[in-house]
Amino acid sequence: MTIMNDQISNRKNEQKIKWITLLSLGLILVLGAFLRFYQVGVGGYGNDYYAATVKSMLTSWHNFFFVSYEPGGSISVDKPPLGFWLEAASAYAFGVNGFALALPNVLAGLGSIYLLFNLVKKPFGRIPALIAALTLAVMPITIATEQNNTIDGMLVFMLLLSAWAFFKSVEKQKLSYLFLGVVFLGLGFNIKMLQAYMVAPALYLVYFLGTKQKWWKRLLHLGAATLVLAVISFSWALIVDAVPAAERPFVGSSSNNSELELIFGHNGVDRFTNGRGSGSLSSSGNRPGNGQGDFPGGNQGGNPPEAGDLPGLSAGTGTDSQPGTPPGSGNPPAQSDSSTAGNAPGEGGQMQPPKGGNQAGGGNGPQNGGGPGQMGGGRSFGPGQSESASIFRLFTLNLGTQASWLLPFALLVIALFIIFFKRVAAGKEALLSVLFWAVWLLPMLLYFSFTRGTWHTYYLIMLGPAIAALTAIGFWLIEKVGVTSTILSKALLTVLTAGTVGYAVYLMTPYTQFFIAFAIIISTAWLIAAILYWIWPRRWSLFLMVLVCMLAPTFWSVMTVRNTADNSNLPSATPSFDNSSNLPANSQYSDKEQSLTEYLLENTQEGTYLLATMSSRQASSFILSTGRPVLTFGGFTGSDDAVDVTKLEDLVNSGQLRYVLDSGDLQNKEQIYTWVKENCKVVDLTGINNSSGNSGQNRPGGGFGGQSSTLYDCQ
Known about the structure:
Strand order of the largest sheet: 5-7-6
Largest sheet: 3 strands, antiparallel
Structural class: mainly alpha
Number of strands: 7
Radius of gyration: 27 Å
Oligomer: single chain
Shape: elongated
Low-confidence stretches: 276-379, 579-587, 690-706
Order of helices and strands: HHHHHHHHHHHHEHHHEHHHHHEHEHEHEE
């Protein structure tokens, strides 16, 4: 009878713990949802290059499949399709606006929190799983990125799904889960290409070390899985490359109109070396290029759609802004001079930046194109653009506030787990999990620390799951050490949390307007929690120390989501401490842009190009405000050879193109520039063109988008 009563009591306690866990997880998800949904979309479309792509995709199935950047189907976005297909589905349901475009990333972020909880719960228990979920829920760069229409949030979610399947294959000893895991990894590849493979070594290691099969069978299984991975990863790219160039868009940011070259070039080698993008950026934030071999492997072939054959030119279909609608109605378009890498975050009421260098926030944000050529390694655009390549890059004042609040703690946990592995008697499952997260984190840490290629601050979202998991494992490890040595456990927790709080105070030192108050509050909270833990070393006092460690990143995240004036083309965790900054930075349509758009709509016909520009920097706002096709001679950066002078002449002669806008960079395409100067006349449009019509120079007070601009009529 006593045994039966004990069993009933244990079941009740287990049920009670289960409900408490579910309630706690629910509260964490609510917190994560609040931080991700708060003011989402208020700052405009987000990344207007991607937003224009989604709007263009909704004009036809042709543009949808090939992820065409503009409704005319002349050039594609420089990424694979899956993330934009999901954003297009959201935009189809809710309209082309900032909320709809960011929604898939927001939902993916919440899914990532839940997946991480489950990945940590199995080997370490409920409490560490909750700590991991909480850490990821409040990580600043994760929130900033998932509030945006950049597609990295969906990538991280897909990678965590892959990790879940790989661990499931080991747990169940079923090959089907292994293949499911590589399917998810391949889908991740179709969101962000080779970036997805950064976790492949960790995933493969899980199966190779975790399965009970003989070693040769493990290799055979992984080999077969790799074949499946290759099919899933490259199927869309191979289909695109197999379609004749005249029947599809030019592959944006590729050197030879090939998706495979884009994968291994712009989105591959260029992420490790200066590659095509070496050298300083131009004043417009674009890479220099004239179509005559400025970059290695310049494109020699591949044409946009033939004149008079613009695929999917049902402009405006399925969008929220019909052609002919003047700017300013409905959802405002993104500001054109903030569309590319290197543009400064909005000003207004943001916090004062750290002293020295190009810093995040404030009135002295990263200068247009000013940092990369001077960095001494790594073309980072955003808060870290002035940081040289070194092992300390991610711990600096600029980048530390993005994702590194708990990074020192996580790194120390790896070392401590090795030291205390035998003492805590961790099982194979726990060891495999620690190994997985370490192999996820360390290669990425080395990459972001030493890469000399192009990378953006929001890529640091990739570090989030590993940092969160290892942080949780650290508190689990301290509790396990306490079973055999309470003093050692207390000492470890005190030192690790003191270092975490001290590092947080260090990251706040430049912000003098609130530094003293912040330092006093967080230090006092830590001291109280530490004293309580030394007096009552229980789970509740341990969890109190966890909450103290989460104060700084949570505070930074809350201030970040209040800031809608940040440059959402390149999201970063840039706080605002003044409500006056809550103005959309990239949704203000200037009088010059509105006047020019109205003029173009009045003087062009539906089904033809609204105008031609050098790059997406100038084109995106026109696409978003009108839904009309806009030709870009050089694609995203202006360095592509998407259109040559022969094609330009054909489009003009066939009546498909009338106007060309030169924002001071057209001379980088020497032949096109010469043809336009010789065959087109300057439009005298007050407030837009400079009186001399010389587009090759920037002069004070000049024209469109804050630069000297000239509109040419080529009819």
